[in-house]
Design a protein that fits this description.
β1 and β2 form a beta hairpin. The protein has a two-stranded antiparallel sheet with strand order 1-2. It is mainly alpha-helical and 175 residues long. It starts with a helix and ends in a 19-residue tail after the last helix. 61% of the residues lie in helices and 7% in strands.
Length: 175
C-alpha cells in the first residue's frame, strides 16, 4: 500500500472517531443537555424549530447511516483501485476518486459533529455554516474532475487524434 493510501486510511479512522464521539459524548452528558434544543436551522444558521432532546437520537442514526454508507463506498473504491483485474485507466480513476471520497466523508462527519455540538449547547450554526459547507462540498467534487483540456498534450505524445473526427473523451473514466 502506498504512503498516500496509508494517509487517507488514517483520515478514515479519524472520521470514524469523530462520528462516534459526536454520538457518545452527548449520550454521556445526556442529563446536562437542556430539555429543549434546536432541531432545525434556517439558511443563515439561526434556530427556527425547537424540539425536545430526544430528537438528537434521530440525528445519531443519520450520522451512523452516512458513516456506514460512505465507508462502504470508500471500501469498494479502494479495493477496486488495487484489484488485479482493474485496467490502468480504472486504477488511475479510483486512485483519484479515493482521496476525494475519504475527504468528503471527513467533511460530512465534521459538519454533523458541529451540528450536534450546536444543538446540545443551544447555539445557532452561524451565518457562515451554509456557504462554507457548500463551497467545500463543491470544491471536493471539483477535485475529482479530470484535467480539463489536455488534448494538445495528449496529441503531442501520440495518445489521441486532433482535428476533424477526433472525438473528445471526458467524464469520470477518461484517461
Amino acid at each position: 500500500m502506498s504512503e498516500k493510501m496509508k494517509i487517507f486510511q488514517k483520515i478514515q479512522y479519524v472520521t470514524v472517531g469523530i462520528a462516534f464521539a459526536s454520538i457518545v459524548l452527548p449520550l454521556i452528558f445526556w442529563k446536562k443537555i437542556p430539555e429543549k434544543i434546536p432541531q432545525h436551522y434556517n439558511e443563515v444558521g439561526n434556530v427556527d424549530i425547537w424540539s425536545d432532546k430526544t430528537s438528537l437520537i434521530l440525528l445519531f442514526f443519520v450520522i451512523l447511516f452516512l458513516l456506514g454508507m460512505m465507508s462502504i463506498v470508500t471500501y469498494f473504491v479502494r479495493t477496486s483501485g488495487i484489484s488485479k483485474n482493474a485496467s490502468e485507466s480504472e486504477k488511475r480513476t479510483y486512485g483519484r476518486l479515493y482521496p476525494v471520497i475519504v475527504l468528503m466523508n471527513l467533511f460530512l462527519m465534521l459538519m454533523f459533529a458541529y451540528m450536534v455540538f450546536c444543538s446540545v449547547t443551544c447555539r445557532a450554526l452561524g451565518k457562515w455554516f451554509l456557504p462554507v459547507s457548500l463551497i467545500l462540498t463543491f470544491y471536493l467534487v471539483y477535485l475529482q474532475e479530470p484535467e480539463r483540456d489536455n488534448t494538445k498534450k495528449r496529441a503531442e505524445k501520440g495518445i489521441c487524434k486532433t482535428g476533424k473526427g477526433a472525438g473528445r473523451r471526458g467524464g469520470i473514466l477518461s484517461d
